[in-house]
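Hi all, long-time lurker, first post. I run a small reading group and we've been trying to get comfortable going from sequence to structure in the token notation. Rather than ask abstract questions, I figured I'd post a concrete chain and ask someone more experienced to write out its structure so we can walk through it together at our next meeting. Sequence below, copied exactly:
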Amino acid sequence: MKMELANKQSKSILAKLLATENVTVEHGKYNTASFDVKNRVLRLPIWKEMSGNLYDLLVLHEVGHALFTPEEGMHDAKGVGRGFKSFLNVVEDARIERKIKVKYPGGRRSFIEGYSNLMERDFFGLKDVDISGLGLIDKINLHYKVGDHVDLTFSDEESVFLDRIDKANTWKEVVKICKDLYDYAKENESETDMSDHDWEEEMMEGDEESDDYFDDYEDSEDDFDNECEGEGSSGDSSEDGEEEKEGSESSSKDEPEGEERERREEDDVASGGDDEGEFEPESKTDNNFRNRELDLVSEKSKPYRYVELPNKVDLNKIIVSSKEIYEKYVKYYSAGYTSRYSDGVTGDELKNEATKLFQEFRSKNKKVVEYLAKEFELKKAAKEHARTATANSGILDSERLYTYKYNEHIFKKLNVVPDGKNHGLVMFVDWSGSMSRNMKGTIEQMMTLVMFCKRVNIPFEVYAFSDSYTRYDDEVKKNWYSDNHMIDERIMDHGTVTVNRFNLLNLFSSKMRAKELHEAYIYMTATAEYYTDRYRWDRSHDFNIPEEMHLGGTPLNSTLFVGFSVMREFQKKNQVDVINSIFLTDGDSHSSNGYWNTEGNTSNFDIREENVILRDSVSKKSIRLMPTGHNRTKDVTISLVKFYREVFDINIVNFFLIGSMRKWDMANYLDYQKKAEGVVLGADYEEINTALRQFRKDKYMIMPEMLGFNEQYLVQGGKALEVADQPLEVAEGATVAQMAKAFKKFSTGKLQNRKLLSRFIDMVAA
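-- Answer (accepted) --
Happy to help. Here is the structure in token form:
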């Protein structure tokens, strides 16, 4: 609980800090917070018993290194002395903490209270220590971190260093100050006992951890010793580092490990690095701090797993163009085709029948679409008018100038209309087997929406997501699609999400020519009739469709993973500001929780056993895939939808088709809704019955902020989804009021029968 509070308190400040540049944040089982200056990765341990201020202190500190410490900074510690790294660390900490406080003044309190907390935990190892016996570098360290908590005095000579540190602005200045400090300590200080405090023992125990800490400032993949090549280990020193480096490179190539170690020890003694007779100063308080940081790290928390969106996607392999799809229909309904159910019925005859059915549908919809287009333009104009502001132009109105003695408004007026945003539509339709009884209504809703978008000139793309579409290589006559077919495995980075085999079938597009669109309408009408015929005994039309267009599974999550690339491409090609996206589904997704491991194979993540963080390398945003009480697959779906809303300026809604709504179904949906709103208690008996009666009347129900979507529409499937208008019924001898009521009901029914279109108009007009 404490950790959660800390995360919440620090979330906003961390976001603001990291917004200044391209920085990646990772939590993991690290010993300490660190920043990889080369790869721009801020690594944070999984902390325990962490107050919000202490959490913010540690994050602010490392972000300070991210912003102000140069990549090659700690290399300046080479060739000076064993303890010189701690000198650099103390002075650089003072510099970057001062600069981060200036840049983000709100963080000052975090530094004060955070270091106060660490003092209470004796992080600097000051218990039973005589402060007066501390060396200058330790007093400087305490002065800048916890000066208010300890009684420190500085001589005039020592105060000069404080003044220099206070004014240090660059890394170069830090290095110069540290070298002067180091020389001062060697000349004026000696080994101190520190009364009753065994510093030497602590240093021996923590020496390795201390070295590891400094390595974090360098390239995380490069060891300190490897960087130095011929220099000794991190505890070595050298007065003449360059000469020693050259000698080591030439002499150590073929030396056995034991001989090389002996040679290095001899070199160390010769250079004074480990000579027992020579004092090597270092900051004991800083080293002690590093050793005690491990006490903050939680050993029992869930591990963190970082996975990346698949941004190296070849959309040409995933998206099946409308041209390719309808060429299959043309071939299928060619003159040579004959029905397998009715002898003598040719493909041309069936296409003619589908054409007649579409013409009837278009005729039924044309006037409604025109009416709704005018309503849409009126809504847009009203919204635009509401946003219009009047301002003085600064130009004198000559017709009002004579009134200047009693009228202040003598300037010409200017109406300022904020630029409206360009909207586009991307629709994804579930092409799974369970959709078969809903297919006729789905296709009718889809075509009505397309007709409207074409009428008002809104760019659109309509995709069916399917795992049953099969492509064949004409040369080798074999299926060349397999799992992860859309991603080149050879170039995939480890940690990237894998995507199972699926395709997006581009059924309709605003880029289609009028003739192409007309053909698409006809073949989609045939598809709708085919799925109707499957449940009709008389098989009145006997339609059939190409094998590739048969229904299959539900790769919803795969679609969502790849959809980020689809949205970006759509936004780029159509220059739209806002994407309106509709997902029409009737069930949960197939499982999709794989990622590429370091061996080039796939592993699975588990959002209940791990803290799984999904990252988008394009927007540099991330989201935790949260368990919400649903099944694991649906939990991933919910998180992905929320991620869309964070990454894009998007309205994203879900039309969820249901066969029947029973009382317990309604109870579950209302419970989900209440959980989404933060209400603990579920729906009561009366609430359930009222909602159920309303649903049976309207055939749909709106669930705001449901499952991550802006809205979820629960829609009665089957025939209730079909675009079938009721006739205008007016009783003989009806009054004017009765006729008006009947007409209103008739008009409302037309809109309700076109649920997708109705909701889309509301989204775009707003």
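A couple of things your group might point at:
The two ends are 40 Å apart (CA to CA).
Residues 108 and 153 are 24 Å apart (CA to CA).
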